[in-house]
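Incident log, entry 3
Record: AAA family ATPase (910 residues)
Problem: checksum mismatch between cached and fresh output.
Input:
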Amino acid sequence: MTEVRPTASASLWERDEEIATITAVVDTLCADRSSPGSLLVLRGESGLGKTALLAETRRIAEQRGCTVWSARGGETLRTVPFNVVRQLLQPALLSMLPEEAREYLGDWYDIAGPALGIAEPGDRHADPQGVCEGLVAAVRRLARRDWPLVLTVDDAHWADQETLNWLSAFTENLADLPVLVVVARRPGDISGVSTHHLDAVAAATEHPVTVLSALTPPAAAGLTRATLGENADAAFCREVWAVTGGNPYETVELLAKVQDSELEPVEANAGELRALNRSARGGGLVARLEELGIDATRFAWAAAILGSDITVDLVAELATLDHDDAVRCAERLRSARILTTPDPGTGRSGPADLEFVHPLIATAVYNSIPDALRRAMHGIAARIVTDSGRGAAAASRHLLEVHPDDDEELVRQLRDAAGEHLAVGAPDAARRCLERALEEPPRPEVHARVLYELGCATFLTAPARTIGHLRTALGMSSLDGDARVDAVVRLSQALLHNDQMEEAVRTVDEEAARLEPGPARMRLQAVQFMWEGIHAGETIAPGRSERLADLAATCTGRDNSERALLILRGFDAMMRGENAEVVTENSDRVLVNGRLAPGLGWTDAEWGVELLLMLASTYVYTDRLDRAESLYNEALRSYETAGWSGGHLVLAHAYIGLAHRRRGRLAAAEKSLRESLRLAERVGRGLPLYWTATCNLVDTLLVRGHVDEAWEVAERHGFAPPYPSTIVLPDPRSVRGRLLLAVGRTKDGINELEAAEKAAASRGHHNPVHLFWAADLARALATEDPARAARLAVEYRSQAERFGTDTAIGEALRCAAALETGRRAVRLAARAVAYLESSPCQYEHAAARVEYGILARSRTDLERGLALARSCGADSLAARAEAELATATGRARAAGSATAPGGEPGNRPL
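Fresh output:
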């Protein structure tokens, strides 16, 4: 058992083991700048000494020259986004000049700065994941500057959700950062997403979670005698322990009451302890507070309403007390151990000159305020905050508590607060404000707008809830004009994200039918065609492509609705395998001087990312890779600049990987796609973007010849039927079939490729580059069903010639050559090389060179194919070329000479 002895704090009794652990990790941190980071989690019920251990952590760390940043959650402050992380970082950032802070945060300044309250927010909704990453980057950069750095977070169970999201992300990868994080929390008092985040924090630590226990009877006796004198008898000490349950905080408070009452610590007085203990908490505390007088009570209530940054002047204004009376009340509450002066040793900065002695007291005081008065005081607090110029968002936590009263101004303030929350990346805070605004309720003329704004706030986090809000808004007559069209489009997007594709199409179709011809109707028609175009189902509206072609034929690209239709027409024609030159003519008309038109950028909200991905992908599959890569790279830059690091960034990396893959830069493709998949894991499995990242990575690994890795990725990430309801590029069935063939599951591979054939035919999709099932199926059937294989090759070649790109025709000729023998195979292979040499797709060119070199026994072509394969990163193809060259060399040496048919692409026989 731990030796009972007095320490600097009563809450540190019997904490030798915990202090030893803290000392050890601080010493490790200070040993070397390259030391790995550490995370300690302290868990215990209220009053068991978590705060005291954090204070001891600060003392130990500062004694060794560490920088210590501290923050604390608050029960009434959980709705304030970024509250705790601001406490941690603001002091360090505000101590810098603005230019210095901008330099330290770099590209993250405009993303994380508004959340931290050191920069003005932009005019767009911030991506919550991007803001979280910006905060992680901010701490990482500052940690290197301020090494050795210790971060302490007290009462993490009361931290705001945005801080907990950051904390779980930050602590996930501490190994490469020299920083110590110590988190203290209660085991309960949390639910939902907050629980998930705190569990993730606990899972990130390499040290066992420290679970604090109550004092043992000997420790309680030692503390009693250290406080009241060595003459305290054993029976009295045992009763102190029994009454408090060994809770250190309650023990200290009880012993203070014993001292105040001048009670002798003897067995005869032990019966008084329970009554004294009741007066230190709950109803007893409230009664004790009332004994201090009405002014002191109002002062304490006002302090509880404020929750943080408690100053005498602010409390006086809220409690309607003059300054002198407020000062006297503050002193009275200090003497009663209800309020205290903030401990400078905590390191928390701010204007506060008062705080509650313990969170238990703050909770008891807050809950003692009569309900109607508490709501009224929150209303006054909101006005005080607003009048101080801190904005609607700062006042919103008080506005949320005001009693609904048909207040038009309150609705306006809550809407303004929601907008400010969205601008800094706190959609849940915006949702709370707008849901509260609906309770007021809003005036009929703005009710639908509030519902629409609420739908936008929940769009990223709760698509199903968004659907309900927007449907209700659209049922109100006050939502009309462009606002109504916006709501219909957003509703269709939410339905799409909720895997209700048919309902999304029907929604825009019905609304478009209500409108007269014009830009609004054309926009809805474009959205309808867009959703139909990305739908992967086996049914398609009869005559859809013809209707789209007719409508696009009337468009000149004079506005974004017309440009959208031209994009959709180009994408549809590309997927159907129409002539590539005609396809790109439509796509080129979309651009203004080679660039995206204003309002049609990657971060513009009116159209969404799907439309621009269609445009760029049309260029990918029509051999216009220069333009496709330009668009994809612009997307990546736009999203990184805007801090959009969720699904948008997943798609940007995935499609950059696709462009690299088509270009033949296979190692670069794999790198981009692995990053995309890493980000996609964070966004969520099963989404179309997750399929896009996985499908492209599997395809790239197969092309590189890394078959085992491709299979492992497919198995780990669920790349198997059932497939998503939206189009994925390239075709996942074709990729899955190729994978099955590569691992030797020939029958399964043939079945998968035949399913790809059926699905493509039902949609009228005949692009031989995107849907490459025919080439692989023909090769797979060459032995067991050569007649069918030949028919497939002929049809494949016909579609490639109709499409007309060098890549398509060259690949079709490669397939035809693989099914032939002798001179005909050589001629077909030579023609494939000629086409693919003009193609931007270097891997396909390399494969054609190697295949021709083998058929024609041409050393020159094998050597060129080998060089191309190596430059592409096509390891298996390069190995094949090397083996053929080695075999030919050995054969030549054995025979003393070699002859070979020459003449076509290469001229050095093997």
